[in-house]
Hints:
- Helices cover 4% and strands 33% of the residues.
- It has one helix at 3-15, and strands at 32-33, 41-42, 45-49, 83-84, 90-99, 107-110, 122-127, 134-135, 139-140, 159-160, 170-174, 190-197, 230-231, 233-236, 252-255, 262-277, 282-295, 302-310, 313-321.
- The strands form five sheets. Strands 1-11-6-14-2 form a five-stranded antiparallel β-sheet, with no helix packed on it. A five-stranded antiparallel β-sheet has the order 3-5-12-7-8, with no helix packed on it. Strands 15, 16, 17, 18 and 19 form a five-stranded antiparallel β-sheet that branches.
- The longest helix is centred in the N-terminal third of the chain and has 13 residues, at 3-15.
Amino acid sequence: MNRLVYIFCFITTLIGAQSFAPKPSITGSTAIYKDSSIIVNWANHVQVNRGYLDIANPSLGFVTNGNASAGEGKAEGNSFDIVSLGDSGVAIITFERPIENGVGVDFAVFENGFADDYIELAFVEVSSDGDRYVRFPATSEASTIIQIGPYEYSDCRLFNNLAGKYRQGYGTPFDLEELKDSSGIDLMHITHVKLIDVVGTINEEFGSFDQYGNVINDLYPTDFPSGGFDLDGVAVINQGALSVSENDSEFYNLYPNPTKSKVTIDIKGEITYSVNNVLGNQISEGRFQDKLLLDFSNESNGIYFIHLKNEAFSEMVKIIVEK
């Protein structure tokens, strides 16, 4: 291949169609920061089945970096406290409370890419019983003319519904509503999330394919102990409502939702609250007992988050303002 053709192919690989959300800090990005106020919980158990150092050369063995427990709890946002999956490796993640199909995105997966567009990908599947899994329809627009090497950059705008498209500290979000037509799964009671490492080779004998049958061009080979997708954490954004009381009735009642202006919260006892918009900016905070009236008359249409908390209880509630 002459130099001119090589340069053309390399540029094509980097540019592609670029149809999807851009990197963090760029308008239109869907990245969820690890300290975002919309996160209400984190995974509490991770089981890992390690993948190969190089799936095309299985005699090399399996990756070894990190422990499964590194994927539990809050994402650290660094390159060290992670667990590596390796080529075709699998992680099965469970939670204290089920994830539910709520307003907007429902959970986010965190990888440890050290820079924007240094990307290691994984498929994402969910289950409501730990038996039947449904995969999010993944799309790759990355050119397959030239293999992306283990230390090369891609472009996160080329990928959709694949975990790992954002750098460390920023999670890739997933919306269960996209799976609403799937059978055999309860989207209001997701108990398991499965991550399957994307084998990035463009060799179709060993590679991974998107929903359209396109081989996914990702970093390859990554034949070192920390190869493949590196799990840092899985954040819960929508989880099942908490019901705790002596009479087994709901701890709180919020209405109406959606609202045109005012929201009433009935709750048992004294509690603190804060209200944030989707950007994480705090609108109000305070303490109340038994009943609270929140007025959104001066706020724009959109999604807001109310955090309710006392010594024994913490809950994030999403509301929609539609005037």
